[in-house]
Amino acid sequence: MSGPVSVASLGSPDKDGFLTKQGGSIKTWKRRWFVLKGSTLYYFKTKQDTEETGRIDLGSDSTVADEPKKKKHCFSVTPSLDAKRTFYMVPDRPSETQEWITAITKAIENCKRLGQNAPTGNYSSAGEGKQEGKKEEPRDVRSGNKMAPRVKISNAKEAVPFLQMEDSKVLEFWQIWSESIPPVEELTGGLTIDYHVSTSANMQKLTWRTAGPQNVFIQKMVDFFWNVGAPESEIDRLNDVGALINPVKIGSWIDMSGKGGMDGGWYFPVEIPLKLALDAADPGDPATKLKQWSEKYGVDKCLSVGRDMGAAPPRQTEFRFKLVMAGDFGSQLRVALDAYEMFGFPEIPEQALKVLKNSSPEYLCMSVITSSEGFVRVGLLQPAPDTETVNKLSSIVGASTTISQLNNFEQALGCSSPSFAEYQYLKEGFGYGVYKEGFDIVFHYNVGEEQGDD
Predict the structure, then answer these.
(1) How far is it, in rounded angstroms, from Cα 284 to Cα 296?
(2) Helices 214-227 & 169-179, crossing angle to 10 degrees?
(3) Which of 191, 286, 443, 448 could form a disulfide with 370 if both were Cys (CB 3.0 to 4.6 A apart)?
(4) Segment holding 341, helix H or strand E
């Protein structure tokens, strides 16, 4: 069949079933319904699709092989000797790996018997890109860089040591999140999708963030939260707070750690009155103290508000502020340090505070996370730290040996330096055995934005 086909039109298959397939340019894994019919391996998004998502044409020089080193129970299909791509797939059940290898081998043997070669290109796709060899590299239209931000974060994932482990649940979590990001084709009128990533200096804890137009993001965000088991009450809370604030942009974030930490939630990256943002938080002493501190220093707006969507309480709400209303750097620092004390956090270590004071940035930002059981985390963000500052701060928290890993991570992101260095403190009891408690340094990166057509 040369044109698009449906599952139903293929009739009785030689072999069919769900396989999780690795993508081409963006190496995420997606579950697809595969149908082997004659010398063609078709795949669809569902068993009821009326048009295939893609197809792999087999020939006499095609190969199929077991790939246990790639992923457990994985096998590969290479359409021809000169193919530019090898396809990697994993069945739902381990026993199916050999079944698929046997069925595809039989199809290849038939091609040999008939002297049938695979068509040029070996692969076509109705919904996942152009024919191989003709697909243009994604572009970051804002920067002119040929590599789109979503490709950059995928590359950066490969530079994180703990994400290279076989059968990593954390990696699977990242893939589910990344697949929830709407395609750039859904953007119109010059609207954008923003990408931000942060990592602890030792690269053992990372946060990935993306945000875009509310009407484009909301359904895919909600689907993501359903997929990872977020409680219905918190999805309702997202809708309620969203209706109250009505943000132009909304986004999702995920946290992860080398010890298996996995958390996610939503955020609104828009400037709003703090009084309104506080409606996103659970009532209690932390919310009251935050309000008192903000009124004391005239911090009446926040740059962003967000909330976690974990399956179990306590719920955590993050507020971000820019402290420019406090005056010069010295005044802003005093306001921030008073927050540390008022919220019950230890002082910033003397060595780290010295680095901050010597840098004397034009402004400071703050991040405060509250919960019904107390303050969770506080962070002071210094903009545009230079290489010397990054190295000094990394040394202070014992991360000098991972500087090369951090440099590789930055290179993969296409960022020459962090946009912020955060002097962060996580309270004891809120690391849950998977996140580092106490003082740490976190570097933030603005990866870029994708823009729709005007």
Answers:
(1) 19
(2) 150
(3) 286
(4) helix 329-342
Asked if 25 and 138 count as a contact pair (C-beta separation under 8 A), the reply is yes
Pick the closest to residue 280 from 302, 304, 301, 305 (CA basis).
Answer: 305
Question: Over the stretch 414-451, which tens digit does the pLDDT of each residue have?
Answer: 999 999 999 999 999 999 999 999 999 999 999 999 98
Residues 91, 29: Cα–Cα separation, whole Å:
12
Quick: pLDDT tens for 309-331: 977 778 899 999 999 776 899 99
Report whether 251 contacts 194 (CB < 8 A). Answer: yes
Each residue of 304-314: pLDDT tens digit?
A: 999 999 777 78
CA atoms in the 13 A half-sphere facing the CB of 103: 19
Q: Is the dihedral of CA 258, 165, 443, 445 positive or negative?
A: negative
The residue among 381, 370, 321 whose CA lies nearest residue 345 is: 370
Q: What is the DSSP string of 390-401?
A: HHHHHHHTT-GG
Beta bridge partners of 265: 253, 308
CB-based burial of residue 257 (10 Å sphere; 0-12 exposed, 13-18 middle, 19+ buried)? buried
Evaluate if residue 1 carries a pLDDT over 80.
Answer: no
